[in-house]
């Protein structure tokens, strides 16, 4: 009896030690198979491990844990716009349900279900963005047609042989040096994603399925279930945006530090560059902006001094962040994205001096 239990317990370890073997692909064939997998139904358990090291800002407390430490997720997907991701922690869980253009969020600590009705044009990063299947597809799409593709040796992930694809962005201005994706060869489902910043041999972000496979969707799994004594509230995407509700409507330049501004549905947010060479500019009103700047400095960000303003800069693998408060304005600009710290500092200098003039 004990011998049988020992054999069963050792099976996962033995599976991971088996040699990996996959069919022959070209890089483009594997990329297309990965992109096609986003339409499949599947379920699984995934963990991400991030080491960004950005200063903890209380206003972005929901994002900080995703960028530093391990995030544990249960995942069910019926289609790209109908899925559920549960984020698990010692304190409970936070579940996100996507149902077409609407979403629902369950907070086990508050015992509260929130319905968010309408498409979320702008939102903060969430755990679902770190699911290997979602992250791999986003990286491929944003790396652009000029990205360099290569094959990696197969490896065993989630108990099966996975085919490896190396993606190198075309732009040298991106903080992303490369991303490695291993996917199930039959379905193309990404099982493991590693993202490397420049000059590092270790990934700044690694996310992988420990278990995953095809799944026939059940309505009860993808529909929020409320128990006795729980609460419910309904809101719109704008009201659910947290700190992003405090954005001011400032006229932003058409370009910054050599990066052109992209069309945006919100005038309060400027998106500059493209793909994996992108940064955002957010304009915060007097109170929240000043608090953000003070929190960043208290958390160890490096002070910045401009002729026309003051600010702070924080550098981390993959993501850099600059805060700028012009002396002539009550607002504070937050710049963050996948470009170098020097580029964001140059952009910040323009905003401190002439935010309404293209540079």
Describe the protein's architecture and organization.
- With 359 residues, the chain is of the alpha+beta class.
- It folds into 2 domains: 20-235, outer membrane lipoprotein receptor (LolB), chain A (Clam); 247-353, 3-Layer(aba) Sandwich (Protein Transport Mog1p, Chain A).
- Helix content is 20%, strand content 40%.
- The chain contains 7 helices and 20 strands.
- It has helices at residues 2-17, 27-36, 64-67, 132-143, 219-222, 286-298, 341-353, and strands at residues 42-51, 68-79, 82-89, 92-99, 102-107, 112-116, 148-157, 160-168, 176-183, 190-197, 205-214, 231-235, 255-256, 259-260, 269-274, 277-284, 302-306, 309-315, 320-326, 332-337.
- The chain has a 12-stranded mixed beta sheet with strand order 7-8-9-10-11-1-2-3-4-5-6-12.
- Mean pLDDT is 87; it is low at 5-15 and 355-359.
Question: Top keywords for this entry?
Answer:
20 strands, Protein Transport Mog1p, Chain A, outer membrane lipoprotein receptor (LolB), chain A, 20% helix, 359 residues
């Amino acid at each position: 009896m004990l011998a049988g239990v020992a054999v069963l317990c050792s099976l996962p370890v033995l599976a991971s030690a088996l040699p990996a073997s996959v069919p022959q692909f070209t890089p483009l064939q594997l990329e297309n198979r990965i992109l096609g997998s986003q339409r499949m139904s599947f379920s699984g358990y995934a963990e991400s491990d991030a080491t960004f090291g950005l200063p903890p800002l209380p206003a972005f407390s929901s994002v900080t844990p995703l960028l530093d430490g391990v995030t544990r997720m249960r995942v069910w997907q019926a289609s790209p716009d109908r899925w559920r991701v549960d984020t698990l922690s010692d304190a409970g869980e936070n579940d996100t349900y996507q149902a077409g253009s609407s979403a629902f969020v369950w907070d086990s600590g508050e015992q509260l279900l929130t319905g968010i009705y309408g498409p979320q044009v702008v939102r903060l990063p969430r755990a679902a963005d770190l699911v290997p299947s979602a992250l791999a597809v986003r990286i491929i799409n944003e790396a652009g047609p000029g990205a360099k593709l290569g094959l990696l040796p197969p490896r065993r992930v989630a108990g099966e042989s996975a085919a490896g694809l190396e993606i190198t962005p075309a732009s040298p201005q991106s903080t992303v040096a490369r991303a490695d994706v291993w996917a199930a060869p039959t379905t193309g489902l990404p099982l493991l994603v590693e993202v490397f910043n420049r000059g590092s041999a270790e990934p700044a972000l690694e996310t992988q399925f420990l278990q995953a496979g095809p799944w026939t969707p059940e309505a009860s799994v993808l529909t929020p279930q409320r128990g006795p004594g729980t609460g419910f509230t309904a809101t719109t995407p704008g009201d659910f945006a947290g700190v992003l509700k405090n954005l001011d409507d400032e006229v932003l330049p058409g370009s910054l530090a050599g990066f052109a501004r992209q069309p945006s549905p919100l005038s309060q947010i400027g998106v500059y560059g493209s793909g994996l060479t992108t940064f955002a500019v957010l304009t915060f009103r007097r109170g929240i902006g000043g608090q953000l700047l003070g929190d960043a400095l208290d958390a160890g960000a490096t002070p910045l001094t401009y002729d026309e303003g003051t600010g702070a800069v924080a550098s981390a693998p993959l993501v850099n962040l600059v805060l700028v408060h012009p002396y002539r304005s009550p607002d504070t600009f937050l710049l963050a994205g996948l470009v170098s710290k020097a580029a964001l500092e140059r952009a910040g200098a323009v905003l401190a001096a002439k935010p309404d003039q293209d540079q």
